[in-house]
Amino acid sequence: MRDFQFSCHIIFLFFLSLIYISKGFEYEEFYINQKVDHFGYSNQDVFKQRYLSNLKFYNEKNGTIFFYTGNEGAIEMFANNTGFMWEIAAEFNAALIFAEHRYYGKSLPYGELSFENNTYRGYLTTEQALADFASLIYHLKNVLPGGLKAPVIAFGGSYGGMLAAWIRIKYPHLVNGALSSSAPILLFSNSASCKNFPAIITADFKNAGISCANNIRKSWSIIRKIGKSESGSMFLTKTFKTCQSIHPVNVSSLIEWLESTWAYLAMTDYPYPTNFLNPLPANPIDVTCNGGASLGDEVWEYQECTEMVSPECSTGTTDMFEPKSWDFNEFSLECWKKFNVKPNENASYIMYGGKDITASSNIIFTNGRLDPWYGGGILQSLSDTLIAIVIEDAAHHLDLRSSNAADPDSVKKARYTIKEWIYKWIFEYKTH
Ligand SMILES: *[C@@H]1O[C@H](CO)[C@@H](O)[C@H](O)[C@H]1NC(C)=O
Ligand SMILES: *[C@@H]1O[C@H](CO)[C@@H](O)[C@H](O)[C@H]1NC(C)=O
Ligand SMILES: *[C@@H]1O[C@H](CO)[C@@H](O)[C@H](O)[C@H]1NC(C)=O
Ligand SMILES: *[C@@H]1O[C@H](CO)[C@@H](O)[C@H](O)[C@H]1NC(C)=O
Ligand SMILES: *[C@@H]1O[C@H](CO)[C@@H](O)[C@H](O)[C@H]1NC(C)=O
């Protein structure tokens, strides 16, 4: 127990001391009118989708459009943490566009009421989000000087990486190639891989010293035992400094929070300090002070309860977590209780094809071996133009970040390869 407390302390201190490295990313903010429903003609509602733009490097004679397909959050965070696009923009004469995902940040289809009921939130699907992105690309190609002949390269990390791959698959006439970084696309169609996620986190912790993982594994039963009594849960409240007190009924919430903390630590195991996923250090405060998840979390939970079913499981032996099996029916029931929706575990495969996408082309899938999501990624090239790059020493989409003196060679090499492919796609488009 003492060891555990000690190592947790160190990790928490590390966590809280994360600092922000400002690179001075400069962009202008724009809004484009989008249909709330791209796929029907009765709902005429429109909303303003936000995007960030920097045209400094763009050249109307020989320009490219770099388009970031936004994730589940406010878009500035992704613009600021995708230094790779900024660093290579000049050599590709690229316009930098970062598009916000509907229902996140300032792109709310029904303003504050967007999440009010199922009518209003029912337009939150990946299909609608991709249609927003496609409409924006169409618009940009028409308004940017030379835009109609400018090739478009999509970029994205994590969920945004899935969207980057999928927009190339669904809209190949608008998007000429895509970099899909750390996108666990196969998670949905292969629930067996759910145990990879906790196993990779555990491996990362083992790399840092084996007793750490073992102590974390032991901690769950100890926390549960202590948390059974009021006095014990009071002790947990004090130990973890939660704003709201923990009672025996909600020891599981504490455990869930701790589990996600370990997961985020593994994801952001970068070779230098960052503040990406900034809500993380603030998470304990958010979760326990507001008595619940923030709106963004709830929106993502809704996505998981519809198309983005992400099986979660752990064994307690191949990983350091409490054993937990994946039960789709139970998950479905919870979604029904929470949002009045039933998830479709096959929706994403039917819509996008999982790894059966060889009819598509020009996509690079990068995955860092240290990233817990690695297990759900595409790790082997699927064709001559659907390229998988495994980055040995990288955590969650390290390749997308700005270059740094501490970067391992593997990520430098990956970035070089990515650039070569982008050159090739652009050349082929122009000489086609
Ligand atoms: C992003 O970077 C800009 C300029 O460097 C800064 O003003 C802004 O606060 C940053 N936003 C986030 C969410 O990091
Ligand atoms: C056009 O851009 C490509 C890369 O995007 C570059 O290799 C080429 O030299 C450029 N040509 C001119 C004429 O600027
Ligand atoms: C959803 O909420 C909006 C705004 O409060 C309301 O106008 C609409 O009637 C509601 N729809 C349903 C089906 O409850
Ligand atoms: C624990 O449960 C109690 C009673 O349901 C609640 O008031 C409290 O906010 C919960 N605490 C945490 C940290 O979730
Ligand atoms: C998904 O597909 C499997 C196998 O075809 C089927 O058993 C299952 O019922 C489907 N799930 C849903 C929610 O439709």
TrEMBL record:
UniProt keyword terms in alphabetical order: Carboxypeptidase, Glycoprotein, Hydrolase, Protease, Signal
Protein name: Lysosomal Pro-X carboxypeptidase
GO biological process, one term: proteolysis
Alphabetized GO MF terms: carboxypeptidase activity; dipeptidyl-peptidase activity; serine-type exopeptidase activity
Family: Belongs to the peptidase S28 family.
Naturally occurring in which organism (per UniProt): Trichonephila clavata
Signal sequence segment: 1-24
